[in-house]
Amino acid sequence: MAEARKLKAFSWGPYGGRAGFLRSLLVAVIAGGFLAFSGAFGMDEMSLALRFAYWIPLMAAGTLWGSLAARLVFGAHPDGLRMIARILAAGLLIGIPFTGVVWITNNLFMGSQIGPRQALSLCVTVTVVSVVMVAINALVARGDRPASRQPPAPPRFLERLPLKLRGAEVWAVESEDHYLRLHTSKGQDLILLRLADAVAELEGLEGAQVHRSWWVARDAIADATRGDGRATLTLKDGSEVPVSRTYAKIIREKGWI
Asked: Is the pTM of this model over 0.70?
C-alpha cells in the first residue's frame, strides 16, 4: 500500500500530484514575470503591462499542458539514467504542439503574420523554453523527495550468537564468572565475554542492564513484582532476574516496574 501511494505521488514526474502542479505553476508565473520584465524575444518595445498580460497566462497554460505531457513521458519513473532524455522528450511534447498556441497569441497581441521560416524559429524558441521549464521542475521535484534511508545495522552482539541460536530473540544476558549465559527464544548457551562489552554491543535493542550481572530485553519481561524494597523480573523462559537498587530508578522511569 505504501509503495502504491509512492508511485501515485510521483506519477506526474516533475509535476507530481497537486502540490507539484501548484509548485510548477508558481515557477511558471515567476519565469513569465522575468520574461515580461526583461522584454525577452524582442518584446521590449511593448508596454510592461502588455508584456505581463502576454507572458503570465501563456506560461500558466504551458504548465497545464506540461503536466499532461510529463505524465505521459515520466509515468511512475521520474528518475533513472534516462532523466535527461525524459526531460528532452517532455520538452518536445510540450513545445511543438504549444507553438500553435503561441502563434495564435502573437496574432492577438501583435497582429504578426508568421511565415514558414518564422514558424520554425518560433517552434525552436518555444521548445527550448519548454525544455528549460521541465528541467527546472524536475530538479526542484528531485530535491523535495526524502533521501532514502538505509535500515539500521543489526546489533553487533547478534553476530556472537552460537549457530544453534542464530535468528533467535535475545531475551537476557546473565554473567557467570568469565562467561555470559544467553537467554533466547531458542534456548540458552554460554559464550566467553564480559557483560560490559555485551551491553555495549547490544545497543539498538530495547533493553537495559538491571543488575551488575544482568541485561534484559524489554519484550522478554513476562511479569514484574516488588517486595521487601526490591523488584524481580520474570522472563518468558521462567528465569527470575533481580533488579538492584542501582538500576531500579532507571527501570521505574522506563515504566518496566
From this structure: no
